[in-house]
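Notes to self after the call with IL:
- keep both proteins in one doc
- input above output, always
- annotate only the second one for now

Protein 1:
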Amino acid sequence: MIPAPATYLRAASLDEALAALAADPEAKVLAGGHSLLPVMKLRIARPSLLVDIGGLDLAGVSSVGEALRIGALTTWDELTRSAELERPALGAFADCAHAIGDLQVRNRGTIGGSLAHADPSADAPAALLALGAELELRSPRGSRTVPLAEFLRGPFTTALELDEIVTEIIVPH
């Protein structure tokens, strides 16, 4: 099936993306597209505006203090190639990351998109829940950090407000 028509915006900055989301309650964030596009094709999701954040600087993996910080636009392939993922405490999550989907999903799908979609059949949320992960969320009002256990509210349901974007995943190690 073909998705319903939507306006497309390639955000040049996080502020531009957040302003677009705040201005249109029917807008959806587009990153890798592996979660959003299939539900658009089924017309389960019918956004009036697609805010493409793929060009924003929200990718990367680093260890800061006692936590692994993963940018929301980090693809599964980038994550699995990170030496930071080799820590023994991250074993189950590392195994999960290496087994995500097929080649196309690993190369285009993002960790932030996967968590924001909250698909109950996904493996990553369970592994990250066990590790006590938190998400950093940004909106025009500022940022907030939410434990993943509170972020995930049910199948395909999260605590993400309409004008918020997942910017980072924080995993204690």
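Protein 2 (the one to annotate):
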Amino acid sequence: MAQYPSPLKETNRLQWIDEARGFAIFGIFVVNIGAFNAPYFLYGGEETAWTSSIDHTLRLIIDIFFQASFYTLFSLLFGFGMQLMKERLEMKSLSAYPILGRRLGALICFGLVHAFLIWHGDILLTYGLIGLLLLAFLNVRGRTMLSWAFLLMGMTVGLLSISLYQFREYIGQPNLFAAEQALSNYQSGSIIQVWEQNYVDWLYANEGISYLLLIGTLLPLFLVGMFIARQRWLHEPKKHQATLRRLWFISLLMFAGLKAGPYLFGNPAWFSMIQDNIGGAFSALFYIISITFLSQMEGARKLLLPFRYVGRMALSNYITQSLVCFLVFYLFRLYGAMTPVGLMLMVLVVYSMQAAFSKWWLTHYRFGPLEWLWRSITYKRIQKLRRTEQEV
């Protein structure tokens, strides 16, 4: 009988991976909402918007615990998921390349819509494009994979950090003209002007060698995620507890040293590539191992349930957050008007509503709405969405 590709059964899911994915969606929202509300996080001059002592404290917390910690976490999980899909397809004697290629192609399409019609800070398009490079590593040995990851990350971060240090006196100058233009268009422009400004912002964020730098920093994280999946450390955490504990302790030390440590020396701007990419990678590893450990504890497991529901619908929830922000800041004209404290309250309210809705949705349906579409495209078969009465 012919074997057909199909999504992973619920009973075979690693719940702590869903929880880590849901936690990443929360952290990404915390970081992104400031850029949704004001242009200073793209064009510089954050101190113009975050002025009070409370604002400064929030910026410190976000920079140490959230900034560059959650897209890195999502990147590790992206590579982890690619490896899991490859293994499941090979168990059915199916070629992984066409199926994973369709999956990435669909992600690129989602990203194009999200990046140019909703928000310039999209990660889906970038993940889809760089993910295509990951296909070349599907059958590469683990050690070779890690060597490529360390080489790419080391060269990219090292060379750019040296360049930033040499020009450290010129770093951090805000582009006030561009920021004022963005404020004007987002606050009072028509929907066409909003889209035009969004396109300008996307070009500014991705111009020049920016995409090459993204390849050098994201592809290594994808590769490390694939390597972790191959080792099966997170499949059987109790069996690999000693290894995970060592990695947890090392990642905690590196997290503290590279993310918080720079503040002891004035948090120099030239160190940002190391702080974000190396420190962010270790903080992501620390978070995913911590969630894995907590998920094995009966008492903590209930606290992680909201993250699990959101993580099961990560794509739908990520896009929904952007749609909510598009509505609030651009259509309701609140761009630049909300305080940092108000933004954090908005994150908590929206995320709580997403967790509640995701729980309800998954009680009645097998996948989130965009997840269903993504899977249907990936497997070239319309997936069954609604649960049967017995499943409900």
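Annotation: The chain has a mean pLDDT of 93. The CA atoms of residues 52 and 340 lie 10 Å apart.
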